[in-house]
Amino acid sequence: MIDGNTYVAAQIERGEIRQTVERAKDALSITMSYLLDPQAVEYPPTQSLGDNWFPSIPSDPVGVVCLAYDADGAELPSVEWIGEVAQPKFTDSVLELVCEPTSGLARARGQGMKWQRTCGKTPYSTGIRGCNLDAALHEVSGVVTSVTTAGITVAEFASAPFPLGGGYITWTRPNGLVERRSITGHAGGTVALMFGADGLAVGTVVSAWPTCPRTWAACVARDNTLNYGGSIYKPVKNPLDGVSMSWG
After folding, report:
1. Which domains, from first to last, does the chain contain?
2. How many CB atoms lie within 10 A of CB 247?
3. Residue 73 has what pLDDT?
4. What pTM was estimated for this model as a whole?
5. What does the alpha-carbon distance between residue 87 and residue 61 come to, in Å, rounded to a whole number?
């Protein structure tokens, strides 16, 4: 135990720490033992750590802190690198985590709206240029009553004010991480999930949100026209397509 934390010996390695002008080169790889065989007689100590990204990755960001420690000294571990897991890569026996440094997480977004009839905003995004649709008003929560390979059944989904297909669903894992998956289909109280329903059990409390078709009619139905990002008066036909610009 070091500074109140218990560390276990395991087959885990990290790549070289670099800081360059190219963000892609600053990624740090962490490799560890992880078995995909569900019938394995014994699992490595890192199996529970890898379970955070299997069978699907959580929506909550997972932070990474690399420490250096001298077992013969009296000083506490020193921080060498801080970042977040960006992508997991699995083989039959190894898990590789591609991590980005904290300094590279801020990325330019929303470089400008295109001139189009439909709205280009992301539903539930916030800010001056966001959709600003109130997620709390469109949340549909309930308890899972049935789980199949195709999806799950939640009685409350049958009375959702808008179709849930194309939206997403979230729930909290036993380890505290929030799982988020896209909804690929909705019929009554049953929804089909991307990557299936692995990890869900009957009795789990879930919440779902519908997407938005990004049309003016959809924005009217959601009472959010003040934030509509499309150009409803844009001509449907291109006035420069096969039409002369001279008049006699």
Report:
1. 12-103 (no CATH), 135-211 (2.40.10.190)
2. 4
3. 75
4. 0.65
5. 11
Q: Is the peptide bond before 210 cis (omega within 30 degrees of 0)?
A: no
pLDDT in tens, 68-120: 888 777 787 888 888 899 999 999 999 999 998 875 555 555 456 677 888 98
pLDDT digits (tens, 9 = 90+) for 138-152: 999 999 999 987 789
CA atoms within 13 A on the CB side of 187: 4
Model confidence over 56-66: pLDDT tens digits? Answer: 888 788 999 99
Give the Å distances, CA to CA, from 217 to 114, 117, 214.
19, 12, 8
Q: How many helices (H) and strands (E) does the chain have?
A: 3, 11
To which residue do tokens 């001298």 refer? 70
Give me the half-sphere count of Cα atoms (radius 13 Å) on the Cβ side of residue 50: 26
The β-bridge partners of 170 are 180, 207
For 177, which DSSP code?
Answer: P
Distance CA 120, CA 214 (A): 7
